[in-house]
Design goal:
single chain; alpha+beta; Jelly Rolls; 5-stranded mixed sheet; two-stranded antiparallel sheet; 7 strands; 26% helix; globular
């Protein structure tokens, strides 16, 4: 699987499209794994979920700590560039994000740091969540930790003191290959430096409730690269439960009738349409 990343080594987030789903390799098996689907469904309290992001990438260790580098990243929440809205109340979650580790961070470094919420009265988790670059009028955006905190110290000392408390509670777990960090768009977290001379490979994945259309999809449309058989081959090997992540209605959904099912099968010769037919009792 690690061979997949040979052309997608990055100093910043993402693979620039090189390892975005669907890749037609083992990364897709992680993205659509039914255990992950079940875990996310449990966390969101509904089986009606959609895939919002999947991008495998390899972060290389380096000594560049420029203002926009994520080498030693600032604490942030992910909702800022995934929706135009503010997160809903804590007990009404609408999304789940994940970082699936394919590296041993005890060797590579680069483990994701997290500041965990400590109950309903946690002062660091009192909305609105605006004490970060790019949010609440703080348009002087920095990705790097030192640049970010220097900005707040100079321009907004109270926010700087607030953010210091986040760093004081920072936890950096040791991640082993196969470990998955599940979190939300409204959790304080940050990327930490990868050791120089090493590479840290992960897959960033996100899901949302099916009806939460205000949470946007990070990747291009899943069907963008249709017509060449590559995407189609991925689609055909998925179960109906896995296909539902991509917006294909589950068996029994009102979309399906005998004609629609037959036409679906005609578009993808060899696709097993029996689960859809059986749900109609045909």
């Amino acid at each position: 699987m690690l061979d997949t990343f040979k052309d997608s080594v990055s100093r910043d987030f993402g693979s620039d499209g090189k390892c975005e789903f669907p890749t037609s390799n083992d990364l897709d098996d992680v993205t659509t794994h039914e255990k992950l689907i079940d875990a996310v469904s449990q966390l969101l309290g509904t089986p009606d979920i959609l895939l919002a992001q999947s991008d495998g990438w390899c972060k290389a260790g380096h000594s560049d700590f420029g203002a926009q580098q994520n080498n030693d990243q600032r604490f942030h929440m992910d909702y800022g560039n995934n929706t135009f809205l503010h997160p809903t109340p804590w007990n009404q979650p609408e999304n789940v994000a994940a970082i699936a580790y394919l590296a041993d961070t005890e060797i590579t470094g680069g483990g994701t740091a997290v500041c965990f919420r400590e109950g309903e009265d946690d002062e660091l988790y009192k909305p609105p969540y605006i004490n970060m670059p790019g949010i609440g009028g703080h348009w002087e955006f920095y990705n790097d930790r030192s640049h970010t905190e220097r900005y707040f110290e100079e321009k907004h000392p109270q926010i700087a003191q607030f953010r210091k408390k986040i760093y004081d509670r920072e936890v950096i777990p040791i991640y082993k290959p196969g470990d998955v960090l599940l979190y939300r768009y409204d959790v304080w977290h940050r990327g930490t430096p990868v050791n120089v001379g090493h590479k840290r490979s992960v897959i960033n994945i996100a899901w949302k409730k099916r009806d939460s259309f205000w949470h946007l999809t990070w990747n291009p449309a899943w069907s963008k690269w249709n017509y060449y058989g590559k995407v189609e081959s991925v689609l055909m090997k998925l179960s109906p439960k896995q296909r539902a992540l991509l917006g294909i209605p589950k068996p029994g959904h009102e979309y399906w009738n005998e004609d629609n099912i037959k036409w679906f099968g005609a578009r993808y010769p060899g696709l097993d349409i029996r689960p859809y037919m059986q749900a109609l009792k045909l």
